[in-house]
Amino acid sequence: MTALKNDTFLRALLRQPTDYTPVWLMRQAGRYLPEYCETRARAKDFLNLCKSPALATEVTLQPLARYDLDAAILFSDILTIPDAMGLGLYFAHGEGPKFERPLREEWAIRDLNAPDPRDHLGYVLDAVSEIRRALDGNVPLIGFSGSPFTLACYMVEGQGSDTYQQLKTLMYSRPDLLHHILEVNTRAVTDYLNAQIEAGAQAVMVFDSWGGMLSQAAYLEFSLPYMARIMEGLTRERDGRTVPRILFTKGGGLWLEHMAASGADALGLDWSIDIGEARRRVGERVALQGNLDPSVLFGTPETVAAEAKRILASYGTGPGHVFNLGHGISQFTPPDNVRVLVDTVHGESRRYHGG
Questions:
Q1: Which of 20, 32, 36, 154 is catalytic?
Q2: Which of 121, 124, 241, 315 is 20 to 30 A distant from 79 in Cα terms?
């Protein structure tokens, strides 16, 4: 593999010294970019876009052509695993992802098996390899997966939800069945991320998008332990470098100390917590990634720059900060404001790194 020209992101995740704070954005390849919309139109369908390594490579690289980002993230979807399990993923126009066969019966839950990623998710692994070659060592490539609990939410609900009624009914009436789903998902996610690492991913991230809707007791039973098992089971070194592991629970600010003990190298933060306070709470155990409110990017360029500076100042001096949004970038974001954000972070952060 080509030598990495910019490893600032990887070093920051491992709390090693850097010249500046690296920045990338969750969902940085997306509908706010006109070139992405053009590629998606050519693909005809979101799943076609995800399942074509060539098109996935194309959209992964698009934000890097516009902005001086410090990492690329694989273009895919967190629901590829349950789709590979045979639940029948489809995207209804204007309604988001849905499953034809959600898990509602005990027999279906008991029959659930972790797919072999090389047999059932080869298109993702091919995309990882193709993207890594196309990057030519300019910046690292991030692989990712949904968390076992977040995947279970979709698998039981059959779609996104505001109430999680089906999932919470299962959790409080048949916790044994939910634990079975989580066991299978944990094996599947671990195998999937290790296959991505083998294919070329240089860091991996677990998205626990729905874990924050749990009580603390439920989070510590049904979400965090399974993510900790994934952290333990991941390939630690590849091509002579440590492969950093990022854990992100949206709404998880109350449980940072527990999350810091999960085995992750870095924690993603949403915008509901001050990053300086988070740093004080976790100490030197993990790096922190975040945590600009994505809606700030709807504001003026001056506001974007001011909010970026505020977060940098709150984190303070020293290593261990990867600048990011507190969740995925909105499709309504003005692309020029993203340039303001990236340039501000790169320019203003040097003072916190002795530069």
A1: 154
A2: 241
Catalytic residue (choose from 31, 101, 238, 310)? 31
Catalytic-role residue among 27, 229, 245, 279: 27
Domain that includes residue 121, residue range: 26-295
pLDDT digits (tens, 9 = 90+) for 200-246: 999 999 999 999 999 999 999 999 999 999 999 999 999 999 999 99
77 is catalytic: yes
Q: Which residue is catalytic, options 70, 77, 191, 208?
A: 77
DSSP-derived letter for residue 89 is E
How would you classify the pairing of strands 245-249 and 266-268? Answer: parallel
Known catalytic residue at 15: no
Active site annotation includes 31: yes
Whether 53 maps to a domain, the answer reads yes
- Alpha carbon distance 123, 119 (integer Å): 9
Decide if 325 is inside a domain. no
3-state secondary structure of 325: strand
- In terms of phi and psi (left: phi > 0; alpha: psi -120 to 50; beta: otherwise), the region of 96 is left
Number of domains comprising the chain: 1
Q: How many CA atoms does the CB half-sphere of 294 hold within 13 Å?
A: 18
Asked if residue 92 is part of any domain, the answer here is: yes
**What CATH number does residue 162 fall under?**
3.20.20.210
Verdict on whether the full-model pTM lies above 0.85: yes
